[in-house]
What does this fold into?
Amino acid sequence: MGTVVAFLNPPRRQAGQCTPPFMVSGRSVAGLDFDARDGWPTPLFFVLGLRYQALPLPWLTKLAQMLADGNAKEDLLAAPDAERMYTVLAAAERKLRESARPAASA
It folds into this structure.
C-alpha cells in the first residue's frame, strides 16, 4: 500500500460558504485516486471546509500529528463503522493534547 491519507482543502471558496467550519473524514476500502505521486489509491481522506485561507495549516498540522503517532491510521482503516472512526480520531486528539501538556514537576 502506498499513500494512506489525503488532506483536501478546497482552495477557492467564499468566506460565507463555510459557516461554521467543518471537516469530513472518509474511508474507501478500494481507495480513491487522488493522483498521489506513488500512483496508489488513497483509502483515508479528510476534507476541510474553512472560512479563510490561512486557517488550514493548524488543522492540517494537528491531523498529521494525530495520524503519525501510534496506530491511528491502522485503527481508522480497520474501523467497522463511522462511530468507531470518530472514537479513534477523538482518542488520537486526546493523546496529542496530553503529550503537548507540560510535564508536572516532581
Notes: The radius of gyration is 15 Å. The chain has a mean pLDDT of 81. DSSP finds three helices and three strands in the chain.
